[in-house]
Amino acid sequence: MTLPPPELAEPPGVVLHAAAWTDVDGAEDDPQDAAAVNVGGTRHAADLGAPLVYYSTDYVFDGRKSEPYVESDPPNPLSAYGRTKLYGEGAAGEQAWIVRSSGLFGPTGTNFVRTMLELARERDEIAVVDDQRTAPTYVAQLAAATRELLERPFGVWHLTAAGDATWAEFAEAIFEEAGLDTRVRRISSDELGRPAQRPAYSVLRSEKDAPVLPHWREGLRECLSRIA
């Protein structure tokens, strides 16, 4: 049973809606629950009556382009997760900044950087896909860019780190910057065999006056220093 949002004495000045179902493969098995969180939850956040920042994803695109996606490109998600995030964009309403980002990582929580460091404690070699290219983005830099974005008009905005990499290239950079000898074995998405299909190319760039983020490698160094 989904409960309505509580009544507030007065609405907040702005709502940052970062909660989401992020289990991409799990959404394939349970699309209804994923939609309840990513669409229904967003609708509840919008019902608070305040301007809303909704964090979306590069997975709203199908990855068939060979150059970066911009805000005017038509979405075409390949996975249940991508579809729920796209529908969530619509549920955010007209008074919303739709922030599409990609490859988010930080010093806490579950993310690619922390997963690679944990696996490196157990293995000398880690298999990582090398046929999915994105722009890994450090959450602290995304947060700073979000603050700037609040001075821009409502609408869809692409906010990602500068540069791009495959997940294998990103893993190699993690081990290099962390001073680890762990090797990366580059594999294909078919070899990995995950339930949800990911876009082969999902680098995002802005065609608008969006805040500019540093290169992903700079974000990686800052993240690793926080973890250390």
What are the SSEs and their pairings?
Blueprint: E1 15-17, H1 24-29, H2 31-46, E2 52-57, H3 80-91, E3 96-101, E4 104-105, H4 112-120, E5 125-129, E6 133-134, E7 137-138, H5 139-149, E8 155-158, E9 165-166, H6 167-178, E10 183-187, H7 189-192, H8 216-227
Parallel strand pairs: 1-2, 2-3, 3-8, 4-7, 5-10
Antiparallel strand pairs: 6-9
Helix pairs in contact: 2-3, 6-8
Give an overview of the whole structure:
By secondary structure, this protein is an alpha/beta fold. The chain has one domain (15-227): Rossmann fold (3-Layer(aba) Sandwich), CATH 3.40.50.720. The protein has helices at residues 24-29, 31-46, 80-91, 112-120, 139-149, 167-178, 189-192, 216-227, and strands spanning 15-17, 52-57, 96-101, 104-105, 125-129, 133-134, 137-138, 155-158, 165-166, 183-187. The strands form four sheets. It has a four-stranded parallel β-sheet with strand order 1-2-3-8, sandwiched between helices. A two-stranded parallel ribbon has the order 4-7. Helix 2 (31-46) packs parallel to helix 3 and helix 6 (167-178) packs across helix 8. The longest helix has 16 residues, at 31-46.
